[in-house]
Design brief:
This protein is an alpha/beta fold. It has helices at residues 109-123, 129-139, 186-209, 220-224, 256-270, 290-293; strands at residues 5-6, 21-25, 28-32, 59-60, 74-75, 94-99, 102-108, 144-148, 165-167, 172-179, 212-219, 233-236, 243-249, 275-280. The strands form 5 sheets. A 4-stranded mixed β-sheet has the order 1-11-10-9, sandwiched between helices. Strands 6-7-8 form a 3-stranded mixed β-sheet, sandwiched between helices. The protein has a 3-stranded mixed β-sheet with strand order 12-13-14, with helices on one face. Strand 13 (243-249), helix 5 (256-270) and strand 14 (275-280) form a beta-alpha-beta unit.
Amino acid sequence: MTPNVEGGILPAPPDNLDLIELEHIGGDLRGSTSDTVNSDDTPLGSDGCPDSIELRAGAYNSGGDRDPLNPTDWVDQPSVPDGVYDGSIVIGDILADEIGGRRVVLIGSDTLRISRASSQALVGPALSESAVTSYLRKAMNADEAIVIGGPHPQPEQMFHLDQAVMLLHGGLAAVTRIVGPLPDAPADARRIIEAKQFLYGLRRTLAAVGYRLVDIDTSVRNVLSFEHYINAIPYVDAVSGQRTVLMPVFPSGQTDTDRQLVRRNSQALRSLGYKVIPVPTRANELNGGIHCLVNVLE
């Protein structure tokens, strides 16, 4: 089977809606469902998980009774280049790659919102979006930083980039394609529309950068259950040199449609030269995935 490799554009669904946001409580940043907004009335989008606020521009001393969410427990902050504040920069939702002879870093737009909010809460005036973007570009030694997403929070069902895209070799990017009709429940339909809009913008951005796009089909039920086949782990086997993808499969509640999608997506990746190894997982039950748990260093 030949995979669907394209650079096309999907129709734009309506604007997306609210997400769980951040609340500043007594000097800490914790997940909440408050209506807290930034000083410019921009919602502080987040997945609501404390570990999404995992990184400051420094080192955390984990000994004793220190609280990793308490800014007073951070120590030995290194200097930040070019006058950027020595404060909280969230770098958990980024993907780096080389394409067309240059190194690029993709940054989820929520990273900018959360970084601005945390810098304002911890060290003073909120960093500008350009300052956060510049810092992350330099930290990743990249030639270009590309923000994925718009002024609204990232979608509830795709709050991290690796739930929407997997960067492959040779200028290829695998992108989630949601298949199937919208659900009847209005709230679920809203979530799917949000995700489709995000994917629409993502596809346009990646195509403009120069990526060729490969569809990874995912059902509406999969997306609502955080069952993201795209949340996979591509790497090159150090012994054989074989390009390989560890692809998640979700044994709980699997249907005939799910099995067909696994076969289709596996064949698409194999046709690009990848060996596909299925990895059964239940990480989605906590809104996570195997790519979120593993980082291939080299």
